Amino acid sequence: MSTIKRDDFSRFGKDFQESLCHLVLKDRPFADQIFEVLDMNFFEQKYLQVFVSLVKEYREEFKTHPNDTVMKSLLRTKLGNQSDTVKRQLREFYARISRFEDEHAEYVKKTALDFCKKQKLKEAMLKSIPLLEESSFEEVVSVITDAAHLGLDSNYGHDFVLDFEKRFELQTRDPITTGWTEIDKITQGGMGSGELAVVIAATGGGKSQCLVHLGTQAIKEGRNVVYYTLELADTVVGSRFDSCLTGVPLRDRWTFKEQIYERVQEEELGKLIIKEYPTKSASVETIKAHLEKLKVKNFKPDMVLVDYADLLSQKSNFKERRHQLESTYEELRGLAQMYNCCVWTASQTNRSGINAEIITMEAISEAFNKCFVSDFIFTVSRTLEEKEVNAGKMYIAKNRNGPDGIIYPAIMDYSKVLIDVQPSTGESIGDVAESAKKRQEEKLSSAYKKFKTKKKKKKEEKNA
Q1: Residue 72: which domain range?
Q2: Which residues contact 308 (CB under 8 A, 6 or more apart)?
Q3: Is the same domain home to 205 and 315?
Q4: Per residue in 234-258, pLDDT tens?
């Protein structure tokens, strides 16, 4: 009978094998898949064979995947027959994997599965050789086919029994601050990975300024940010980041060029990429393609800013504009989940929002349905009087992670991209509307009195 030389993971190195063991513990669907084709002897080191065997045996006995707490217990109680060297190596290995980042997890999983499946196929081919003489054609094909099907993706979703422990692990959103204490309070620290948030304002109301502020707060935290601009030049957006980061007014940037340069060179800042696309020339798929290019350069975004989503093109041929926008926002939400980052974008109001005291979701342009997929929405409104004193209002229109319907007064000095949200006064939309009505009545009354006084004076002058 022919033989094929037995192979193992030695060609991939020790780091690869340790990363694979870590993934077997951390990724239950991947463990389901690879255990169909994995032979413990593929691992060079005894301590790695023991580690993966403990995971597999626990799964078989208790019909659930172990978590970190269970694994620590197994390493304390199930190593009685192992040598002191193996025990020491296991302890050291487990301490190391707590710091693993698994940047190349997909490569390790793909390579390991490919290797293991090929080994199973080799075994099946050896087994089929004597069957060629003794068995039917169908039996030989069955042996090869069964081997070829092993190790295929078996992730059907969250298994209620096997993933029991996973439901009791602490879930972290890893939120990125908005830079506004009041907003962070009601959003549990800001926007988290996989979440979509929207800024709504009238034309010229400061949508882009708000996005620049949010991006600046993120890079000050050491986060990586990608800003997509479909309306302004990338250098214009970069200039706004300069001002927001340093507090230098836009008109004075040239005077303080050296100070700005020193600030943007500071090591604690995250990386910022500003990508410009002509209006309506880019779609969500275009953004995904760009993010994939950045991924090749080992750049992983924590925040993506799209200025703004209404200016993206739509790959689908929807007849109505509202259906196009709804689809775009759904795709942006999917992008946030795919790249495990938060996505901020902006939307413009219809004409009713231009002079509104408070912009509500009813004033959203074109497609109200785009609000449904968003996790957080705030609006920015500024009356003519407020613009004169660098003030405005922020209204929380939607908030999945906390209360909404709150109005916050804000300082808004767009000459240096300064936006500072103040504590809420407790006013409701009705209160604001009533105050606006009273102010309007007072203005009309004052104007009428001036008119009457002027008319009376003219009459007196004429009679004199």
Answers
A1: 9-168
A2: 207, 208, 211, 230, 231, 345, 346, 347, 348
A3: yes
A4: 999 999 999 999 999 999 999 999 9
